[in-house]
Amino acid sequence: MIEIRLHGRGGQGAVTANEILAEAAYYEGKYAQAIPMYGTERRGAPVTAFLRLDEVRVRERDLVHNPDIVVVLDPAIAQRPSILEGLKAGGLVIANYPHPPERFPLGGNFRVTTVDATAIALETLKRPITNTAILGAFSKVTGLVKVESIEKAILHRFPGTLGEMNVKAVRMAFERTPAPIQAVGGVKEKDEEGPLSGSGYGLIRSAAGWRTFRPVWNYEKCTGCRICWIFCPDNAIGWGEERPTVDYRKCKGCGICVNECPTKAVEFKREEI
Amino acid sequence: MSERITIKQIPLEELVITPGSACQGCGAALAARLAFKALGPNTIRHSIPACPDNVTRTPTSGGEFEAGGDHVTGTWRALKALGREDVQVVGFYGDGGVYDIGFQSISGAAIRNENVFIICKNNEAYMNTGGQVSGATPQLAMTTTTPVGPMSRGKPNSRKNTPMIFAMHGVPYVATASVAFPTDLIAKIQYGKGIKGFKFLDILSPCPTGWRFEPNKTIEVARLAVQTGFWPLYEIIDGRKFRLTYKPRELKPVAEYLKLQGRFRHLTEEEIKEIQRDITDYWERLLKLDEIGEILL
Fold this sequence. Notes:
The complex is a heterodimer.
Chain A: E1 2-9, H1 14-27, E2 31-37, E3 46-54, E4 69-72, H2 75-78, E5 91-96, E6 107-115, H3 117-124, H4 131-142, H5 147-157, H6 161-176, E7 181-184, E8 213-217, H7 227-231, E9 237-240, E10 243-246, H8 256-260, E11 266-270
Parallel strand pairs in A: 1-4, 4-5, 5-6
Antiparallel strand pairs in A: 1-3, 2-3, 6-7, 8-11, 9-10
Helix pairs in contact in A: 1-5, 3-4, 3-6, 4-6, 5-6
Chain B: E1 16-17, H1 27-39, E2 43-47, E3 55-56, E4 60-62, H2 68-81, E5 88-94, H3 95-100, H4 103-111, E6 117-122, E7 148-149, E8 152-153, H5 162-167, E9 173-178, H6 182-193, E10 199-204, H7 208-211, H8 218-227, E11 234-237, E12 241-244, H9 254-258, H10 269-292
Parallel strand pairs in B: 2-4, 2-5, 5-6, 6-10, 9-10
Antiparallel strand pairs in B: 1-3, 7-8, 9-11, 11-12
């Protein structure tokens, strides 16, 4: 039995990716089990999903505690040591990360491969929804599920142009993913941001990992009208000395300030990893 | 009636602890931030099951879905017994809790004219549990329980006019607000704070996840809702005196508002025309009320 854990952020489709993989495996005559994990996580917050694949009927019903493979849909989450929790020795990490596997920040007794799924998603879907792209990488590296089966499952779920755009993303990721290497990054033991899964209601923690894009202020254009400040839902924009200041730990990257600024003094830049 | 303020008069003090667990671009989180800015720290907050918005620094308690009105009543009566009549008791509930499940208890509190402030963060569906239809959902909107398909065009009936229902209870203050008009929202709460008795404020809080638009469009959508007459801003005093607080010379076509959102993507030109007719009709009636400054009932 192969056990897989997926990490993503709400809205990136980790749960959907999980179900598509299960369906694709089913087309190949395998037994599959997809388990979503719901807390009070919202769009943008870290989410987790679990998958089991086997040639025989799967009896286990628990969450996956010791995965063989960890799939990460988001570059900010890929940096966090929590993703390695319970990973079997010699296991595999498939991460959405903009740099080659040699530059993957975590190290240990596991193999790792990376693909810039965010760039692929922005290119094909025009939105940072990385779930289907990462499946192309999964198929290429593990060979557990054929890319044709994944495409069939995607087209079954999203008929029409949406499905075709997603299939394009899968193929692009399939081509661009390099072979996994032994992880060489530094070993970080502690995750400073608290748990990745489980209920996070009322928990005070950083939202920095929620962003795909970061708002940046050009103070030369800023007139001090306070519009960005008043419309920030997360109180990330402070008001000091007649101009806005930003606390990026609070900013979820929703982009309201970018959209509302009357002088276009706020710009959206892709988050650098 | 509430007094007009400018953006520079909005208090700088923040009562929210962020980031909360609300989605990116959450309208309800912004509604909480703005509302508690105006309410000030001398406030007790009650919650019933709803989307997470912003955690506030005020004393907070959670209760049963159907008992929102009872909850605030009990708190206010206890404060009165202690002689602390200066404290604001606020029920900060979602539209499911105000329009549907919790309606009876809040209606009871309104009839008894309890000295409480009920604020509804209205995102027009049960967004907390995956976007099921609520009494606040507008006609023909797609939700997960009113999907669009061969047999269905979205929600079949029109939304419940809850602000008017509360006004008909004869309570001291009822108003509607939108997160895109923060000065108006804050002025209304500051005015309501000064009144003894039951206050109700219905804040339209767009939901990027449930209404299906990009999180950066929250304010744009909320503003268009008001500018098209889809969500008129008004206030009613003692169930009688009426005033529109936003009155443009001409409304924008409602299509501009509908086309921004995925929940209305399936609408045909004919259906949009029908919605436009309903809105124009209602707006004209409100204009007449505004002219005489009174609800004639």
